[in-house]
Amino acid sequence: MSLLEGFLNLLFPPKCPFCGKVQDHAGICPACEKALPWTDALHTIKEGPGGLRCAAPLWYEDQVREGILRLKFQGASGAAEPMGELIARCAAEQFSGAFDTVTWVPVSKKRLRERGYDQAKLLAESACRLWDTEPVQMLRKITDNPAQSGIHDAAARRANVLGVYGAINPDRIKGRRILLIDDICTTGATLTECIRVLRDAGAEDVVCAAVAHTREQKRQKTEII
Predict the structure, then answer these.
(1) How far apart are CA 119 and CA 116, in angstroms?
(2) What's the CA gap between 165 and 186, in Å, rounded?
C-alpha cells in the first residue's frame, strides 16, 4: 500500500459494498462472501428475447439489493470497484473469448448531474482494470424516460425504453463483439434495447453482464432504474 493510499484509507476507510462494514482492506467482507445470494451454475446467465444473454454473479435481494441502491442513490461510488471485479470474474468465466470490447448502459445527462457519476460506467471501468484495458462509450441516452422502477408490466417496460438510446462512435462498434455492462438485470428490457441499437450500428455480437439479476418470481417487486 502506498503512502497516499494509506492516508486516503484513514480519511475514507474502505467499506464492504454490501453491508457497509468498515474494514482494513477494500472489497467484500468475509461475512458477506459467505452469506451473499450467489447465483448457481444453472442461473448465472439470464436469457431473453432479442438475443439477450446476461451473466450475473448475484441475485438482486437482501444485502445485494441494499448495496446496489447505495451505489445508485446514496453516493456510495466506491462500491463500484469491488462490484465491478465481481462482474469481471463472472464475465470471464461465462463469456471467455466471446467479446473484444467493453461498454456500458449510460444514464441520462439529467441523472448524471443528479448523481455526479454514472454507476454502470464505474462498474465497467473497474471490470476493465482487471483486464488491463478501458471501456469504450458506444451508447448515449437520448431521452430521460420515466424510471423503470415504477413500471411493472413487461410490455410497458419494453415500450418505455424504445428509442431511448442511440449509438455513438460507430467506427468502434462495427464488427465488434461487445460486452455490455449494467448494474442490474430484471426483465432485460433496457439491455435488450441497447443490444438492438448496437447491432443496428454493426456490432457482430453483444453479450451482457451485471452485478445481479432477479429471480423470476421477484421481478415485479424490484426497484430498477
Answers:
(1) 9
(2) 18
Cα–Cα distances in angstroms (integers) from residue 119 to residues 43, 46, 104, 181, in the given order: 24, 21, 9, 10
Residue the block writes with cell 477494500: 26
Separation between Cα atoms, residue 160 and residue 92, nearest integer Å: 31
> What pLDDT is recorded for position 208?
98
CA–CA gap between residue 89 and residue 144 (Å, rounded)? 32
Q: How far apart are CA 202 and CA 176, in angstroms?
A: 8
Q: Enter the C-alpha cell of residue 57.
A: 454473479
Alpha helices in the chain (DSSP H): 3-11, 30-35, 62-73, 80-95, 109-115, 119-130, 154-161, 170-173, 189-200
Q: Give the pLDDT score at 99.
A: 97
CA distance 209 to 25: 26
Q: Are 38 and 185 in contact (CB under 8 A)?
A: no
pTM of model > 0.70? yes
Q: Which residue has the cell 462482474?
A: 87
Distance CA 169, CA 70 (A): 31
